[in-house]
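Re: duplicated header lines in exported structure tokens

Our pipeline writes sequence and tokens for each protein into one text file. With two proteins the header for the second block appears twice in some exports. Here is an export where it did not happen, for reference. First protein block:
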Amino acid sequence: VGAHVEVIPGPANVVETLLQIGAATPTVAVTTKAGPVVTVRCSGTDAWGNTIVDGWSVVTTPNNLPVHTTGAAPTIAALKAGTWQLACRNSGTIDTSPASLTVTPAPPRHLFTLVEPSEIAAGNAAKLGCVATDVYGNTIPGFPFAMDYGPEVKIKGLYVSSTKSGIHTLKCVPETDKWSLYEIHAGNLHVRPGPPKTLLVGQVLDKPV
């Protein structure tokens, strides 16, 4: 009876990293809007040209991008905007020419109104700001805003004021789009009474003994 010898690959000598979204062709550079799952395709050989199948890990730079390794290949949920370098690693050998992943914000979804401080004395002013984000919380710069506010509020530049005590609601809204396309998060300005304008002093009569 003949003997069988199983030869397993030696330590990795050549390592390559490719990125893939869906059925697209794997490539060394991917740019995508936030949302899809990116598959990391790791491949490599040992010094004798044997293909390495198992034992892969992925190093990300910066290292704040979670990599899921429970499936057949490592995957990344591309939800956070930014740019990363990804390199496959095996047996201590790492790809010296990492793949590049660039994630840009998805379409705007949330519009936030920021009021700082949120409570002022009547006649004073608070700083006003508007922020647009996608569904994943990525900030979208340059979104065209308009302001929706009541007649008791005055806005000048980036500041809001009122002489009327109470709680005033302000909304950053889209300049031209339909409001229904977004989730609008209003801000409140709480105006408390200021110092008295006139102080009346009356005489208190002595009580008869």
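Second protein block, exported in the same file:
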Amino acid sequence: IDGLDVSLDDKLPRETFDALTPGGNFNAASDPTMSTASLWNDTAYESFAIANTGYWGIRSVEITCLSPAHNPRVRFIRDSRGAAAALLVTPGDKFDFHCYVLARSGNQSPTDMGIQVALVDSTGVEDPIYLDGETTTPSTYLWKRLNMDVIIPAGYDTADFYVYVESDCAVGDKYLVDTPIIKEVTAPTDIATAIFGQKQVAATIVEG
């Protein structure tokens, strides 16, 4: 393709949140580079750190299990203060959702990880539901990809995309997560739009 600007430097911010705007609606944001420590706030169930290794580039998010019974998780949609948020969606929206995971060596109780989407009806009419994606037993030396095709059902308007650790992990066990992609595929798009993250690419990879 001739004449296509392939520089991403001025298209997407490095090591910051990228806007998520499926359907043209303003939403929260994600940290696809997994490299901005201030955007990952600890909770009572898990703590976060930036690891100096990654599937894509040299950074990833390390999650430490603090409360295994609550399935420690990395929630990818967050606000500019680092608090977990949710993506505004409409019924019929379709997303390709995937990320990569790795286990730290020395974990006391190696276990599976999986990806999931929690759906909520902000009007309160429908009960929350959970859509399940793939699960895998993370390797300690080879990044594994978790995949999920998401279709938003009728009655729901917010979605929470995350990867979780099974509840049989041990307190202190650590896992790495990198390269989350939340790509809207509701309608066809041209290559420039897909590359430069307009409507269709909700989270992409820009690693310095």
